[in-house]
Design goal:
The complex is a heterodimer of chains A (430) and B (314).
Chain A (H helix, E strand, L loop, with lengths): L2 E11 L4 E10 L2 E3 L4 H6 L1 E4 L4 E4 L1 E6 L12 H10 L2 E6 L10 H14 L3 E4 L15 H7 L4 E2 L8 H13 L4 E3 L12 E2 L2 H6 L3 E2 L2 H17 L3 E3 L5 H12 L4 E5 L1 H5 L21 H12 L5 E2 L8 H4 L16 H12 L4 H7 L2 H6 L15 E12 L16 E12 L2 E4 L7
Parallel strand pairs in A: 1-4, 1-5, 6-7, 7-8, 9-10, 10-13, 11-12, 13-14, 14-15
Antiparallel strand pairs in A: 1-2, 2-3, 5-16, 16-17, 17-18
Helix pairs in contact in A: 3-4, 5-7, 7-8, 8-10
Chain B lengths: L15 H18 L13 E6 L5 H12 L3 E6 L11 H10 L4 E6 L4 H8 L4 E6 L5 H15 L6 E5 L6 H12 L3 E5 L15 E3 L2 H5 L4 E4 L15 H8 L3 H4 L7 E3 L12 H4 L6 H19 L4 H7 L1
Parallel strand pairs in B: 1-2, 1-3, 3-4, 5-6, 5-8, 6-7, 8-9
Classes of the chains: A alpha/beta (430), B alpha/beta (314).
């Protein structure tokens, strides 16, 4: 029997309302209530003095780029980045090459996960064939192949009738539909938020209204069909307001926000650095504050990184030509601790909840708690350690981070997946 | 005051004193251009590469003539006939040109921010000859130089910029230059092409042509840029002309001494009546001529030249 005993930690398990100094006992990959005297003698011990022990972090929005774009990231490198960032469960998006719009591709991804992943990885499938927004993908077969949700992430289904059918059909399988809310006609060639900054920089503006109209559309369709629609990477203040009012009426809408939209604004674009180019774009300080308030009152359900790796030669070019997206797995925890806990006065348990059981619950994933019998996924971190983040030295295959060469506060010291240490604060343990 | 910039990327970052230094240097070069021998040896032995990724007539020829008047060797690069058609990136193209011993690059590119990007990458000076809808600094310098020749100091002078402001780098550079020179600037055009965001840059925005043109001393027309418009920002060219085109009646609302400007290329009969473009109030061709002296000043100063040296020789 494999036994692991974590002692002296500040144990925070928001799902179980636990927040006290204590022990964690792990036997054969699952939490147990305690060890016998004999077990205590033979168990491997980790002294977590000064550290927080929380459920392994859960990220329901990452791009692992496999199959087909393995120059950017692979399931192996992406899951290593996840482990180094304290994430033990990630949900990968289907906009690979080919896109994951059929059971065969999902099976390929499952095989790669089985061989290469160091954390739990759950795939999603496409809403439409080829993510073209024209014809429904075989949702039932995707569900049978093991997807945890469907999404055309990176694209947004523009046809309202098709989207209505998609959510109505997916509801039959109890499968959440995650939507990337973007009206394409309103964002042709757009590169950044529309406003004073885009006016100054001469870049094509991307109005928040392009997000708001689709968020509204999804609220209406969820109301009409009763289906669960999850709104990905919300960036606009007005959208937060739409979601808040919909939730007040009991609509089955959920939403996420990314660390970069919580921490940064369009002001960062002044030097045209493509490492601040993302979809949706960074918006204004007003929007940023609205996202934080949305997380505080539960309008926004969780934090998700939208980890989107691109190589240096893809990103390092004229701003208009650089692809959208930034990596985020290895920086999410310190960034979110900074914005929500230290600046926003969220309690540590509240921050951890937004990155553990709350996202897990949205997609019915296991994990997110330290309760007895749960799979033993644990993250140990020092909330106060300052460290210099070097994106090029990170575990992701790509280095397109807005936090490259910045000092961050809060550092993951150990990541445990199913009772096994996979990251020891320095390296991946295999 | 010594000149200490090696790149000319944006008017936004220039001080008023720097704009005036360029104007003074321009005036000196303009005198030299009126001599029988128009050439000076200021940049002898230097190689200037015109890196043009977008079509251009005036700007490209003016930069080429300016370089030649300064005795530099000049090479003009045509993106359509280059390895960029084989997929070579701007980064690689520019680094290769630097490796070929160029001393200065003049860049015209459709992507906003690309001159700044190149200037960080290269250790030779970069002059922006127009980047997307961002800036076209030498155009604004020649425009304000031309205005000063006609009006004197621009402080408090009423300048109207009329047309497609949203997609115009000329408008943005002129907004910065004119506000730094304390002119009273009003942007006019359809609400879809003159968004309210511009008021944050220190100018007025109006959609009423009559009140905006009343007593203006300068009206600068901008071309309707079909190539940069993602979708229909106005119903038709015909409607644009009927609502915002400058014709004789509307020109009569201007100050009697007002000048009419246009950075070119003009769409006759769209933003301006053909007669008006050729009238004695039009300074459109003077702008073009001043383009050479302004680019001489830009090339000279960014290559390490000092204003005083020209001011004393001219």
């Amino acid at each position: 029997m494999s036994l692991l005993w974590i002692t002296n930690a500040r144990v925070i398990d928001p799902a179980a309302k636990r927040n006290a100094r204590g022990n964690l006992f792990i036997a054969d990959g699952r939490f147990v209530a305690g060890f016998s005297a004999g077990q205590k003698k033979s168990a491997k011990k980790i002294d977590a003095r000064g550290l927080v022990a929380c459920p392994g972090l859960v990220d329901i929005h990452v791009h692992l780029r496999e199959p087909g774009q393995t120059h950017k990231e692979t399931i192996q490198t992406g899951s290593c980045a996840a482990a180094a960032g304290g994430f033990t469960t990630v949900v990968c998006m289907p906009n690979t090459s080919p896109v994951a719009d059929n059971a065969g591709t999902i099976e390929y991804i499952h095989n790669a996960i089985e061989h290469d992943a160091v954390v739990h990885v759950h795939p999603t499938g496409c809403i439409t064939v080829g993510q073209k927004g024209e014809q429904l993908a075989p949702t039932g077969s995707l569900k049978r192949a093991g997807v945890v949700a469907i999404t055309d992430d990176g694209h947004c289904v523009q046809n309202n009738e098709l989207m209505r059918c998609a959510v109505e059909y997916a509801k039959m399988f109890d499968l959440p539909v995650m939507d990337h809310c973007q009206d394409e006609a309103m964002t042709q060639n757009a590169a950044m938020n529309e406003g004073v900054m885009s006016t100054r920089l001469g870049l094509r503006g991307w109005p928040h209204a392009a997000e708001d109209v689709i968020v509204s559309r999804n609220v209406i369709l969820s109301t009409y069909t009763g289906a669960h629609i999850h709104l990905q990477h919300i960036s606009s203040k007005y959208s937060v307001d739409i979601i808040r009012r919909a939730k007040g009426r009991g609509v089955r809408i959920t939403a996420e926000a990314t660390p970069h939209h919580l921490a940064l604004t369009e002001a960062a674009l002044v030097g045209y650095d493509p490492n601040f180019k993302m979809n949706p774009p960074l918006r204004t300080e007003e929007d940023r504050r609205a996202l934080i308030e949305g997380l505080r009152d539960g309008t926004i359900d969780c934090v998700a990184t939208d980890h989107a790796p691109h190589t240096d030669y893809e990103k390092d070019k004229e701003f208009d030509y650089a692809p959208f997206g930034v990596i985020g797995l290895e920086t999410a925890l310190p960034v979110v601790l900074d914005v929500l806990h230290r600046q926003g006065k969220f309690s540590l348990p509240d921050v951890i909840a937004l990155m553990t059981h709350k996202p897990a619950r949205l997609l019915n994933l296991p994990g997110g708690t330290l309760a007895a019998d749960a799979v033993a996924d644990v993250t140990l971190f020092d909330p106060d350690e300052k460290w210099l983040y070097d994106a090029e030295a990170g575990f992701s295959k790509s280095g397109n981070s807005p936090w490259h060469r910045q000092t961050l506060t809060g550092r993951v010291k150990t990541t445990i997946v199913s009772g096994r240490v996979v990251y020891d604060g320095q390296k991946i343990v295999t | 005051m010594p000149w200490n910039r090696r790149n000319l990327i944006a008017i936004e970052e220039l001080s008023r004193a720097e704009i005036e230094q360029i104007h003074a240097t321009t005036a000196a070069f303009k005198k030299i251009l009126q001599r029988s021998v128009k050439k000076v040896p200021a940049l002898r032995g230097k190689t200037i590469v015109n890196l043009f990724f977008e079509p251009s007539t005036r700007t490209r020829i003016a930069f080429e003539m300016a370089a030649k008047r300064l005795s530099a060797d000049v090479i003009s690069f045509d993106a359509a006939a280059s390895s960029t058609t084989k997929g070579e990136t701007l980064r690689d193209t520019a680094q290769n040109i630097q490796a070929l011993n160029a001393d200065l690059i003049v860049l015209r590119h459709s992507a906003a921010g690309s001159p700044l990007y190149l200037s960080r990458l290269l250790n030779i000076p970069v002059i922006n000859a127009g980047d997307g809808a961002h800036e076209h600094p030498t155009q604004a310098l020649l425009d304000t130089f031309t205005m000063k020749e006609h009006l004197g100091a621009l402080k408090g002078r009423k300048v109207v910029i009329l047309g497609d402001i949203l997609f115009s780098r000329v408008a943005r550079s002129n907004i910065w230059a004119l506000t730094k020179l304390e002119a009273d600037v009003t942007l006019v055009g359809p609400s879809t092409l003159v968004p309210h965001w511009f008021t944050d840059l220190g100018v007025k925005v109006s959609h009423d042509l009559k009140s905006a043109l009343a007593d203006a001393e300068v009206v600068m027309l901008l071309r309707i840029q079909h190539e940069r418009q993602a979708s229909s920002h106005f119903p038709s060219l015909g409607e644009y002309t009927s609502m915002f085109g400058l014709n004789k009646t509307r020109a009569s609302w201007l100050n009697p001494k007002a000048i009419i400007m246009h950075p070119g290329p003009i769409n006759r009969g769209v933003e301006i009546d053909s007669d008006l473009a050729d009238s004695n109030r039009s300074v459109i061709l003077e702008q073009v001529s001043n383009g050479i002296a302004v680019r001489m000043a830009a090339l000279y100063l960014c290559s390490g030249g000092q204003p005083e040296a020209v001011l004393t020789t001219a």
